[in-house]
Each structure stands twice: as structure tokens, then as C-alpha cells.
Amino acid sequence: MAETMHSEDWPKQMRKGFAELCVLIILHDKEDYGYSILSQMRKVDALAFSESTLYPMLAKMTEQEFLTVREGPSDRGKTRRYYAMTTKARARLAELMVYWESLRDGIDGLAADRKL
User: Fold this and answer.
1) Residue 85: how many CB atoms within 10 A of its CB?
2) Which CATH class name applies to 10-113?
């Protein structure tokens, strides 16, 4: 028997699906640390998610060689992990942006055709 997604679950699943794209967009111009990335995403309610989602994703993206990590000081004295995009990540971002634009345009077109 196939599981059905509860109506409350779909926004969470969509956020997870777009998380990698959002992280790469945030890191496009400069390196940043995890909590700052999380804070930037939380400024947009629809993109807000927890540390338990972000940090494993950053570790996976590092393992996949999309990100490099360096340790550096913070204003609180504790060491922070700073993440930066690799060349491989820049290519991935370009691919994801093409897909995003196609998806967005397709959904907009479907809605416009039906005057939604």
C-alpha cells in the first residue's frame, strides 16, 4: 500500500527539495558559516528549516565536493566552519538554476492558462 503525503507535509518536502539550490545561491558570492546560511534562509518563511536539516546537507555537499570547509574565528571566540563553493558547485548551480527557471515558468504557464 502506497503512503500518502499528509497535507501538512508537502511544504516541508518542497523546502528540502530546494535546499541545495538555496545554499548554493547564498554561497555564490562569498563563503559563509552554517548559522548565517540558516539565518538567511529563515528570512523567507517558505524556506525556513532547522539546523538538523542544514548541517547534514552541508556535510553531504562537502563530501560530494560541492563545498570546501575551513575553520576560522568567530566574534564569540568559538571556531566556526566556513563553507565555500567549488568549481563543481558553480556548474551544479548553473544546472539547478536552468531547471528552476523551467519549473517556475512551466507552473506559471499552467496557472496563467487557467487564469489562476
Assistant:
1) 22
2) mainly alpha
